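During the second year of the project, the team shifted from modelling isolated chains to modelling whole assemblies. The rationale, set out in the original proposal, was that interfaces cannot be judged from single-chain predictions alone. As a representative example for this report, we include one of the complexes processed in the last quarter. Its constituent sequences, exactly as entered into the pipeline, are reproduced here:
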Amino acid sequence: MLLLMTDYGWQDPYVGQVKAVLATHAPGVAVIDLLHAVPDFNPHAGAHLLAALCRDLPAGAVVLAVVDPGVGGPRAAVVVEADGRFFVGPDNGLLSVLAGRAQAARIWRIDWRPQPCSDSFHGRDLFAPIAGWIAAGDFPADKHTPVAELEVRFDTAELPRILYIDHYGNAWSGIRGGIAEPGSNVEVKGHVLPWRRVFVEAGKGEAFWHVNSSGLIEIAVNRGSAAEKLGLKVGDPVRLQGAPETQVH
Amino acid sequence: MLLLMTDYGWQDPYVGQVKAVLATHAPGVAVIDLLHAVPDFNPHAGAHLLAALCRDLPAGAVVLAVVDPGVGGPRAAVVVEADGRFFVGPDNGLLSVLAGRAQAARIWRIDWRPQPCSDSFHGRDLFAPIAGWIAAGDFPADKHTPVAELEVRFDTAELPRILYIDHYGNAWSGIRGGIAEPGSNVEVKGHVLPWRRVFVEAGKGEAFWHVNSSGLIEIAVNRGSAAEKLGLKVGDPVRLQGAPETQVH
Amino acid sequence: MLLLMTDYGWQDPYVGQVKAVLATHAPGVAVIDLLHAVPDFNPHAGAHLLAALCRDLPAGAVVLAVVDPGVGGPRAAVVVEADGRFFVGPDNGLLSVLAGRAQAARIWRIDWRPQPCSDSFHGRDLFAPIAGWIAAGDFPADKHTPVAELEVRFDTAELPRILYIDHYGNAWSGIRGGIAEPGSNVEVKGHVLPWRRVFVEAGKGEAFWHVNSSGLIEIAVNRGSAAEKLGLKVGDPVRLQGAPETQVH
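Output from the structure prediction step:
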């Protein structure tokens, strides 16, 4: 199973061009679009989204993750094996949260460069062949160098900000639900919001927080858009009342 | 063949998370995105869209259909076999139009719940495993109870409203074309529109109605947007002149 | 490998309906969405995009290409084999740029019509079965007539206009990079833009041109939207300074 997480968007040809390479290198392997709407040029939000979205992937899954504003510059390319799953992408922090949270992680720097290789599309030209080979069961040892650490590493603790706003208007934070008390409140943009276990327990149009299906604290409105009602955007601070320690960054 | 029809939208990770489960339960089965833009929280429009979109599916096809504002509440989960095709989704009316129109239908209530099961994403946690098992040829009889009827049923007659507006601006109604006379007119938002067999028979910029490729009466403009030109939105009433009986709801 | 390039958009059911037909005719063949955001009703831009996007496809690849405002009218349907790759679509110029640039091309007119066949969706009813059969290795010779030329042919030289704007706001022109000197400037909408090899060589917010990953001259802004900053839209003229001959159309 090959999964893609990028900021390439849906409407452009970039995802399809990556898939044409994957189909050549890993024929017969299912390729799944996990997310192509990571906030543009934002590996920090991407790193927390990736960690949340991939926590339940089966062993052997391969993830091609690209949010890469530094493409064409000196940043390295890497493969991370984290608890049996493989991640291929730029060494700009994007893979660092999941690597730091893994029980067991191994890291390789990708030294190989294809000929030709574009300056602006390493997702297609560099990361896709590597991911395809790994997914096809052929880890290309001659193209990698084991390294002890990623060069760019983000804090693996909670990121108390809005990471992502979905098309319903639900706002995902970077705070995992496990640290929150069901009865407590969440503050965002001056609003203090109560907890509801599930949408249908909130009144129609009521804003609340809950632990979403990817394990993150999410701000939502029953049958409405929390982003619109509360004026939320990616990057806005989120504060969990009663858990101040985890909020300091 | 596994098909998905939801209101999950394209840009969010929800579709990919469903597909990761399907790839685990039904490896090698083609998974096809039929529609993820069912009007949000609107099982009624969704029920008529589903019936229209699935009329030509081959026997054995499995459809995962989710428009589920009541997720986490008491609504049941069901499987419908309609003329040899299988539909998995919530018992909130979404599957009722196609079930009511089928020549032969069987219904099962899904009693099984996975552990763990999120409160807000039954598409991934409950419906996807069931749909995957069925698509893989393994109908999980121990997880279902045959029932005589769906709990929530919409009228299976025509729905004389705008159901869906596509990206060109064509507006799909819930009225099937079979009941319309080619020479007659259609009224919408105070406009009386003539019939044209096909786009190129209309003048450039002319508004007209035709029977679209899913068998529904559609309001269109040649090389333009009917929604913009006529101010149409989902839910607007559509009236077929000369067929008053079918218009009363 | 089957690839799709259309103006069907992402959110509508059209792509999924095409894929359901392909899955029936070519089970097990990977189907890849290359682009569904060709500017609506614009086979001319589509022809140059198709030629650029398909230049690196492996032999044997089959492309279903549909931008078809004349559907239901007298335009013919064709198959083009260009340098070992197959293209199926309308004979309205869409396939003519890649055919004209190919070292070896063969053309067939599709005489067959399925029963039933919708008047408005030949992508699903006519082109998809043909493309599926070819991808499955069964070229349906009884359904085609070899012809010497396409009926509608666009100039195969550079198209010095904006063809496409991606979701980052990068603007693709129809001018191939091979004819441009790295040191020269590009003019668009009264702006004179310098060349940068790669995004990170431009200042943050600086507008520049480069040869993009599909081989075309692209107007871009480092970590910003060129379309927004420079007010670009599809169709705007682009002029390469120092190469006036190629600009006259």
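The first strand of chain C starts at residue 2 and ends at 6. The two ends of chain C are 36 Å apart (CA to CA).
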